[in-house]
Design a protein that fits this description.
Transcription Regulator spoIIAA, Rossmann fold
């Protein structure tokens, strides 16, 4: 067993399957569903599992929530605006129910996992039928059965570090798939609520991961995205002969005939030379890396509890670029952390200029109740944070255009994700370096890997011609 992980037993899995069979026979069960997802790729993959279970219960997906009999909000709580958006949409459904009295509404995910949040929401939004946390996802069939046979709201939130294997999945794409390798986080960055709602780090057993990867490979998947709050620390909680580092796991997966392997998210403090060497010697691991820096100032990094310095971060960047020439680098940056001075913010600006990222996700610091940073002195006024982030965005956009010039005239291979938003005669997808590429194409190209040559740079997108 992996560290503090609580594995869902086969007996419990069979029990949930029995509830699925019971629900399929219920005349009052919903016929259609719609899942609304907020937040990260982990949440998106959880929504795929929710959809998989609902379809086994006999429900079919409604393309829009207005046409669904059951609407489920899978929530995020990393930033305050994600919570506000979710609750605003839940309130809107109260009006929909006036013309659709049998509509079922559920709220789940990270927000519900916050202590006391489920009870608070059900007190304020009494029309919600079902609320459950991330650790209860595998019990959805049982909760649905109870809700369908009761006139009371069903609430389940436990603080267990659960691993549930074998849940059904309805993938968003047939050509690409998420593959979770670990859950939770042990880092307790002072600004982050994730360890409190997702639990402590727990790695899936390598044989379970490899077995799932083989199944995906046989199904024709062209790309897998390995998921974890901190994939670099995979395996540290495993015990015995089966213990495996993330670098070794990557080598095992690289030996399979899956054309593309991506992963996220990585923590700089755990980025080892072994992992970099595994990337450098791989055939299928794509030359891209998402490495959140959060700040370019050592004092802010210390107060964030990030466990690395600016110099250490830059050393990892240098090592990556030396080992994997042309690697695509992206990052996360927080502006307006409590106590951040203008000079400390300028350290972040200077780091961005030095690294020259292909992409950066920039955020204004959002206090999260229960985290250490929320109680820190020196909370930055919103007007100051907003002005700083605008300067950061302008700098990143300028540097990004310059950085992208290295792709001009280069050949790329794009896994087409869909039609371009601007034309039904063009398609778009991700290149090997994680950058979006648009080229001439049609709907039949979706799911295929198309060779092309980069001809133009537009904002965050590369324009290409087919080869």
């Amino acid at each position: 067993m992996a560290g503090t992980a609580v594995y869902v037993t086969e007996a419990e899995s069979r029990r949930q399957q029995e509830f699925i069979r019971e629900i399929r026979e219920l005349p009052q069960r919903p016929k259609t569903y719609h899942v609304v997802t907020y937040g990260c790729q982990m949440n998106a993959h959880d929504s795929e599992k929710i959809a998989g279970m609902l379809e086994e219960m006999g429900l079919t997906e409604a393309s829009v929530r207005e046409e669904a009999d059951f609407v489920i909000f899978n929530t995020c709580c990393v930033r305050d605006n994600a919570e506000r958006r979710a609750l605003g949409n839940v309130t809107w459904l109260k009006e929909v129910r006036k013309t659709h009295p049998n509509l079922m509404i559920a709220v789940c995910g990270c927000m519900i996992q916050e202590p006391g949040m489920a009870e608070k929401i059900l007190k304020q939004y009494r029309f919600i039928d079902l609320a459950f946390g991330t650790a209860n996802l595998h019990r959805l069939p049982e909760m649905m059965y109870t809700a369908l046979n009761s006139d009371r709201s069903v609430v389940q939130v436990v603080q267990e570090d659960v691993i549930a294997e074998g849940l059904p999945v309805r993938r968003l794409r047939q050509d690409a798939a998420y593959l979770t390798i670990m859950y939770g986080c042990n880092n307790f960055c002072s600004f982050c609520i994730v360890p409190y709602v997702r639990g402590r780090e727990r790695s899936r057993q390598p044989e379970d991961i490899l077995r799932e990867a083989e199944t995906l490979q046989r199904s024709g998947v062209k790309e897998i995205m390995l998921l974890g709050q901190n994939v670099n620390s995979y395996g540290k909680d495993l015990e015995g002969e089966g213990r495996m580092s993330f670098a070794r796991l990557l080598r095992e997966l690289d030996g399979m005939q899956i054309p593309r392997i991506r992963f996220m998210t990585s923590h700089p403090k755990d980025l080892s030379d072994e992992l970099i060497d595994a990337m450098a010697g791989s055939r299928h691991i794509l030359p891209q890396f998402h490495l959140p820096v959060q700040s370019g100032n050592d004092e802010i990094l210390r107060r964030m509890n990030r466990h690395y310095t600016r110099a250490q971060y830059l050393d990892r960047v240098s090592r990556l670029r030396e080992a994997v020439p042309g690697i695509g680098l992206s990052t996360d940056i927080i502006v307006g952390f409590p106590g951040e001075t203008e000079e400390q913010f300028q350290d972040t600006m200077r780091l961005v200029e030095e690294v020259r990222y292909d992409g950066a996700f920039t955020f204004i610091y959002s206090p999260r109740v229960g985290t250490r940073a929320a109680a820190m002195e020196g909370q930055i006024p919103e007007s100051v944070s907003s002005e700083r982030i605008q300067r950061l965005i302008q700098l990143q956009e300028k540097l990004q255009k310059e950085t992208m010039k290295r792709f001009l005239g280069q050949e790329e291979e794009v896994l087409v994700e869909g039609l371009s938003r601007r034309s039904d005669r063009a398609v778009s997808g991700k290149g090997r370096h994680g950058v979006s590429v648009t080229m001439p194409g049609e709907l039949e190209d979706v799911g295929n890997m198309i060779p092309c040559r980069i001809t133009e740079i537009k904002n965050n997108t590369l324009i290409a011609e087919r080869i």
